[in-house]
Target: CBS domain-containing protein
Amino acid sequence: MPASARSILDQKGRNVITISPTVTLGEAAHVLEEHKIGAVVVVGMESRIVGIFTERDVVRAIGTEGKAAFDQPVSAFMTANVYRCREDTSVNELMEMMSSRRFRHVPVEDNGKLSGIISIGDVVKSRIREIEQEAEHIKAYIAG
Model:
């Protein structure tokens, strides 16, 4: 069975760190550092995705606003047009999406609710597992 967002989340877990759009950039940067993550999902009412805030957004905010950015709401700097995937999205589709759109994190939705987040590292690990399994099947066939 080809790997999917669901299989990645089943392997890594479905815990997602989220913040409110009213959190300051400084607080959001602290959340990223505290959890050793590169992106945090911004959620509004009923845990609906309203944005994603990444390390790149921190750099862009400081580059344009300087120190004043730290006290502004994260909603001023987050990416509001968030590309999402479903749990049945294939790893190949994820690779294509991340590559063509040039981002490293994709929130996963199930029935309109946040059910996980997948990073480019998760996709690479999944692909490596697939290739290793294929190699084992070929070895078994040859030895067979």
About this structure: The helical segments are 5-12, 25-35, 55-65, 91-101, 120-143. The radius of gyration is 18 Å.
